[in-house]
């Protein structure tokens, strides 16, 4: 038999999710600033925080499915609101970070691998945003930001292979 979860357990995780969201917002600002100094460290921290957030999302989704209480609408609404805020944050932070980096003629070593992972992440965000629960909640501006981030990222990835050619 599957374990059942209480509203209190889900609410505690939602509080943790909200904290992760606030911390990620701060890290996104730092990452954008650091990108202009050609540094990936702050962006990696931001992405690690997003990873923690995404792990919590998986736990919460599972708990919402196995909630003792049949009334989940309020919890699901709060969950989807936080998830939507984080998706918007991820897309906007990525777009700004990539925009700054795209101006650099030379990218640091390892850039290509980071950007390939980012392209996957943006694709996942796009998939999630097209689900009925999320569709229309973010507005056309975020859809444009997502497309812009993907285009900038593809340009950077096109630039990055030249870094990996040591023959020359």
- Amount of beta strand: under 5%
What is the number of helices?
5
Oligomeric description of these chains: single chain
Estimate nothing, just give the exact number of structural domains: 1
How can the largest sheet be summarized? none
Amino- and carboxy-terminal Cα gap? 63 Å
Can you tell me the overall shape? elongated
Order of helices and strands: HHHHH
**How helical, in percent, are the residues?**
over 70%
Global Rg? 18 Å
**Residue runs with pLDDT of under 50 for 5 or more positions:** 163-168
Mean pLDDT: 81
Structural class call reads mainly alpha
Query: What is the count of β-strands?
Result: 0
Secondary structure layout:
Layout: H1 7-35, H2 41-65, H3 73-102, H4 111-129, H5 139-159
Helix pairs in contact: 1-2, 1-3, 2-3, 3-4, 3-5, 4-5
Q: Could you give a short description of this structure?
A:
The protein is mainly α.
Notable characteristics:
single chain, 168 residues, mainly alpha, 5 helices, elongated, disordered C terminus
What does this structure look like?
This protein has one domain (7-160). The chain is 74% helix and 0% strand. The chain is built from five helices and no strands. The protein has helices spanning 7-35, 41-65, 73-102, 111-129, 139-159. The model is unreliable at 163-168 (pLDDT under 50).
């Amino acid at each position: 038999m599957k374990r059942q979860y209480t509203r209190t357990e889900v609410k505690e995780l939602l509080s943790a999710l909200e904290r992760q969201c606030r911390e990620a917002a701060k890290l996104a600002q730092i990452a954008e600033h650091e990108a202009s100094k050609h540094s990936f460290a702050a962006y990696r921290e931001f992405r690690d925080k997003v990873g923690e957030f995404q792990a919590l999302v998986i736990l919460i989704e599972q708990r919402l499915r196995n909630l003792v209480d049949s009334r989940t609408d309020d919890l699901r609404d709060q969950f989807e609101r936080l998830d939507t805020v984080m998706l918007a944050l991820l897309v906007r932070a990525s777009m700004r970070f990539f925009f700054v980096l795209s101006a650099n003629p030379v990218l640091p070593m390892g850039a290509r691998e980071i950007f390939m992972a980012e392209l996957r992440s943006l694709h996942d965000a796009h998939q999630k945003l097209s689900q009925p629960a999320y569709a229309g909640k973010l507005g056309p501006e975020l859809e444009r930001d997502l497309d812009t981030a993907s285009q900038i990222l593809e340009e950077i990835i096109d630039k990055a292979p030249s870094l990996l050619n040591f023959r020359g």
